[in-house]
Specification:
By secondary structure, the chain is α/β, with parallel strands linked by helices. It has helices at about 10-30, 45-60, 75-80, 95-105; strands at about 1-5, 35, 65-70, 90.
């Protein structure tokens, strides 16, 4: 299992670099499960939402499953108000719940 924790706000180019690094690590480690922890992010805008969806799709195409964890309540509310969603991406409250989701889908 690969666990990626976003430690700070990311620029658009940082988000793209993160996608590249995640895919590289999925391949290098032959990871079948990925957890992406975004609990430290203060903002998830339309570009970030699209990038999270793209990361999930890319990870899936590499044969791994992903869960995004830690979307804070105020971020979730803002995303809904802006019409942003991650419908096709499993999300969880925290790391433990994310691991449970991925374990249950084995």
């Amino acid at each position: 299992m690969l666990i990626v924790a976003v430690q700070e706000e990311l620029s658009d180019s940082d988000m793209q670099e993160m996608q590249h690094r995640i895919l590289t690590e999925v391949s290098r480690r032959a990871a079948s499960k990925v957890i992406l922890d975004v609990s430290l992010l203060d903002v998830i805008d339309s570009f970030s939402t699209r990038m999270l969806s793209d990361i999930a799709a890319s990870v899936s195409l590499r044969g791994a499953r992903i869960a995004i964890v830690g979307i804070r309540p105020e971020i979730a509310m803002a995303m809904v108000l802006l019409g942003l969603n991650l419908e096709s991406v499993p999300t969880a409250l925290n790391l433990d719940h994310g691991m449970e989701i991925l374990r249950d889908r084995s």
